[in-house]
Amino acid sequence: MKILIATGIFYPEIGGPASYARLLCPKLSHSNSVVLLTYSAVFKERQDKLLPYKVVRVWKGTPKILRHLVYFFKIFFLARKSDTVFALNAVSAGLPALIAARILKKKFLVRIAGDYAWETAANKGKTFLLIDDFQKSKKTGKVGILHNLQARVCKKADIVIVPSEYLASLVAGWGISREKIKVIYNGVDFQAPEISHEEARKKIGIAGSVILSVGRFVPWKGFRMLIKIMPQLLQINQFFRLVIVGDGPEYKILQSMIKNLGLEKKIYLVGKKNKEELGLYIAAADIFILNTGYEGFSHQILEAMSAGIPVITTATGGNLEVIHQGENGFLVRYNDEFNLIEAIKTIWQTPELRERFIEEGKKTAAYFSPEKMIDETIATLTRY
Fold first, then answer.
1. 30 phi and psi, to 5 degrees?
2. What digits encode the pLDDT tens for the residues 256-279?
3. What is the DSSP string of 326-371?
4. Entry pTM
5. Does residue 10 contact residue 34 with C-beta atoms inside 8 Å?
6. Count of helix runs (H) and strand runs (E) in the chain
7. Where are the domain boundaries for CATH 3.40.50.2000 in the chain?
8. Which CATH architecture has domain 197-367?
9. What CATH topology corresponds to 2-187+370-383?
């Protein structure tokens, strides 16, 4: 079978769709002809020649309108030689992929890992609603157009793949038949380096008891609250150090909060990290925390679990399908100052609970294997 995968980002860029494609394409290429089309921050990537599948890049340095036109014409040309078109988002890749697939009468599948309209609105300050409340709200202007576009792409698709039951319900709320929505959980392809906490801390240059959080610096990730509670956490353990991996539009706000609280030597914003670098930070961590108002399905939670790091996260979205309260981690309400502090305190001061979270967390991570995700995805792509 000839399969065309359309995505918005790919290696060397970092992000969910890029990681997903790098996991899927090599195995998919074992028994299928695979071409991947992507927007790209680099004009060429030398490693592309070493891959068992073809990568076609549309340079992001091209003016926006022209860039999207080039992407559409490339996807139309590539789809002519394909049996199935699989888009890894609903708008920038999904819309041109749908148009090409329908004109050429090809099978079309799309993967939805979030609500692009809501994310755009939240990032631009157009809404302060969390994702569930946003679904019930009236959507106008550009946000309304994006919402209608992603819903239309999903309605026209043969199959919509989502990584959690939560997202299946969300997409069904857009008017998509539940019968065409296929849940395939994300798999974790992660191994922490085999070094001690102490060695890892030396390599990252941060001493103390590390509380780690990872994510894009956007309002709903709750990093402001983690910074706010740090003075109280230091009363529990003066050697706590909050380390936040990531970058994004809230960087300057978070940096200013740290400076105003005089916590420059207690809280570290370390920027984006590649897979290997992130492994060192996870190996250095004592507790992993994700205080998020929305999560479709978190790779970071599973990566922390697989590395034996106890997890605290929010009772929202796909987190509820991974964390079983008090068994393999703690669930708290989003931005709940008191319960965040109490959860961290309880894990830190209760060794037997900590060990249970570590043991059960590893079992949970093993269940969500990359092999299972890849096999289910390949079966879906080749069946329909």
1. -60, -40
2. 999 999 999 999 999 999 888 999
3. TTTBEEE-TT-HHHHHHHHHHHHH-HHHHHHHHHHHHHHHHHS-HH
4. 0.89
5. no
6. 16, 13
7. 2-187+370-383, 197-367
8. 3-Layer(aba) Sandwich (3.40)
9. Rossmann fold (3.40.50)
